[in-house]
Sequence to fold (252 residues):
Amino acid sequence: MEKSSYDIEFISRGFSLKGILHLPKAKKPPLVVGSHGLEGSKESAKQTVLAKLLIQNNMAFFRFDHRGCGESQGDFIKDTSLEKRTHDFINAVNHILSLEKTSRDLVVFGSSMGGATCINAWETLLQMNINLCGAVLCSAPVKSRTIENIPMDANENRPALPLSFFKQNLLFNIRDKIHTLFNVLIFHGDADEVVPVSNAKDIYKLANEPKRLIIHKNGDHQMTDKKDQAEFETEAIAWFLRCFVQQNKMPS
Fold:
């Protein structure tokens, strides 16, 4: 059986980062690159679902662990910031395109901090020799000071986080970068207990057409409701396809 997924390792400013490239049978398929949330990884639920659905629809997908997360090198506390994750994301795009297994048509996907990473990387991606076609963003913060529940307690993946981590590493306001976005689909729960839905409304207000905002009634930050998950799967795949079809780049 022909292989459809490939383990990938690339360097981002001295850190060895690991990911998985999912390829459909189509020749030179368009590419989606994903960025996970603050404490997520390439194995997060949305990314593993997209890995299956995208290749079923003749699109390639690359999911990877940012520095300090999952299988990638780095210390989560020392090496996490929006700027560093933005460098990781841009380097991920560059590396996958250098393999020449996909076309240079790109849609970006980001969940929570991953959504902020996509927004922050957008202008740089526009300046690269690629065809940036759109974005799908879930529960993305635009202003870090709006975040309501800060995850400071220790868990199975890391020690307790000091308040200084958030003051020194995670203070950002990327509202002024939204005006360059286009072809953006935004998901957010109106009962998000971490990132208020006002962030999604800011993105929708300031982004260029085409754009769409889907607000999940009583939806939480993790999108745990099965109906919300099903809508995400259906609408996200339709949006990815729409972005690429608009560019007349989808393979037959």
Notes: The longest strand covers residues 5-12.
